[in-house]
Amino acid sequence: MGTPSSLPTNPNPSPSPPPPQSPPPQTPPLPQSPPPQSPPPPPSQIPPLIPPTPLSPQSEPPNETPIPDSHSPEPAPEHVPTQMKTQGKTKKAASKPKKTPVGKRKRVPSVPFDLNSPPQPSSEPVSKRTRSSSQTPTPVAQTPVPQSPLHSPAPASSADNIEENKRRHSLATQAKTEVIGREDDRKAIVDLLLHSATVDNVSVIPIVGMGGLGKTTLAQYVYNDEKVKNHFELKLWVCVSDVFDLKVIVEKMLKSIGKEPGNFELDQLQTSVRNAISGKKYMLVLDDVWNEDLQKWMELKALLMCGARGSRILVTTRSEKVAGITSGKKTHYSLKGLDLDKSWSLFKKIVFEGKEPESPNVKNNGKRIIEKCVGVPLAIKTIASLLYFRDPEREWLPFLENDLSKIAQDENVILNTLKLSYDHLSSHLKHCFAYCALFPKDYVIDVKKLIHLWAAQGFIESSNSSLCDEDIGLQYFTELWWRSFFQEVERDELGNVENCKMHDLMHELATSVAGKGICIINFKEKSVDESVRHVLFDFRLYSSQQIPAGLSNALKLRTFLLPCQEFPISEDDVSKLSISEVIVLNFRELRVCDTKIEKVSNSINRLKHLRYLDVSDNEKIVALSNSITNLQNLQVLNVSWCSSLKELPKDIKKLINLRHLYCVGCSNLTHMPRGLGQLTSLRTLTLFIVAKDNSVAKNVGGLNELNSLNNLRGSLAITSLGYVKNGIINPILKDMSLLQSLFLSSRRDDDANVDNEEMAFQNLQPHPNLKELKVYK
User: What's the whole-model pTM score?
Assistant: First the structure.
């Protein structure tokens, strides 16, 4: 597989846009899964009024299209849809759906079809991110899977076609939530866990198999088995992945049982783990282990041996050597590929709703295709998702003879098979997928944030004036999800897509096609290629001195992420440049900056291209420099959980392209700045605080600032309503038809008036589309 030496520049670079008059759109949130009959709703905080138009799959030559170094294109004018179904009301088809013979593809025009439930906002701040390695896995059978909006939908006027498409979408995607062909494996491993005779209190059972066979899925299947749940007193799940670091593993174990590890030394962390598992019959899953260093394994094993008799450690790995080291050369469980019958069963569930095709030629070609997948479920699902959009009679045989025939039957056969699906993505989806190489393996990706990042890099094409960038970005995500580039997608309590992960093989594919343009920097990294465009620090940064050599010369850097930074960076040595200063001085082309720094540099206004700024979870920031308001391309500002922050920049009205302002958890904010209502492109505003005496304060905005922000979606909290003068306000919420959640509260002190508060509550008049209303007094 070819790997470009660096991410090439966009073929049509455009100069940095002057501050546009309307900001570019952005992302969504996610709630609990909708019923299987309806396609996945758009992303969380951005419930489109009209469902996004399905993207037609564009076949492109198998040339790699890495992430471009382009300035974001000028945002197209946005028209907000004006129709949205009222809560709980849906139309049913007037007649029964017409059946299409199995093996035939009905061609219908590509126009939007109705999504049963519009997306809804998440009340969680963007900054809340976690690593899947410390989370208990979602039961496999319940993992939400996208219902593809990618089939050609029927015209809106055709109730028959709409219902037929919905039915087929539901049936085709159910196959991805089922564990097909692994029941015997599940029973065998459960038996080993519960009944295996061993002289040791704690024994290790490795599951070994090539990538994509479903080792993690099988381990989840076992982990959530009722017999296993009842047998063990304590269950833990840790994803180990490439770096086998004892301290990191111990921290993840503590998180898995609901304890925060804090910023402690290894000895203290080990003591906490021993106290948690000592004398208990526990089960620990160590997922995706690569370590072949016996000494490192023995250090971890010594910590784990204090469990009660019958404790088990289940290890998943691709390496026979790892299996031998962890189990002491005892028997391990070797996972094989699905046989042809089970492979065919999985394939036809996705492509033919589980039915046998009527055409013998289609059936024969289908079986020949899945033989190339060598029984690997991930490859079967990916190819099936690709072929679902193709005419079985006319297009499957050329695909078999031209595309699949080029794949050599070697150790890279699976990765090359997956790349076929990548090769057939349109160019904008290739950019979006390759960018995901920036996240570490097994990372829980915040989908709303991911779409923000895509928009900030200019990957979202605003070609349809009826949709905003957030809705288009959600379409991109949904298409990649449907094609198995994402997995383990979860929703929030309102049904909005919340987070997801990538399979390790998909991550390897993304890394391969992204080339040198993306770099995940770990604590051992000494130097970085200056051609890099996007970096993520996979460790805690304490000083600018930890920034690897060469990165300061990466003058074209577009992304700077610090997702592991749980504590603000405190730099007391004034003789050295702060991280904030390093960023401003060196990375003038930066589009995305996500750091936890004590102070935002006054010269941040030099980052003219910045579109995404996240300084959240920082209790030491008291104020933001007003120079931020010169960042006229800024689309996202996240100051959530900056608990010491007292005020937002007074000239915030200058941020004419700002679309998302996250300020949940800013408990010391006293007011909102005057002019906030002029930001008519704003899509997200998580908090509005009513100030005392706002009629006389020069820079204080009153509730009337909300009058013109009718495009707000997601969740909004309004606090201190007791300060509203005489309780008289306009019904400012009545036109916010996209708002999903509303939280109202008042601060009870001597200056708050209870009668004013009650009157204010009654006068707000939220829109009937509101899904959630909570009042705190």
Answer: 0.73
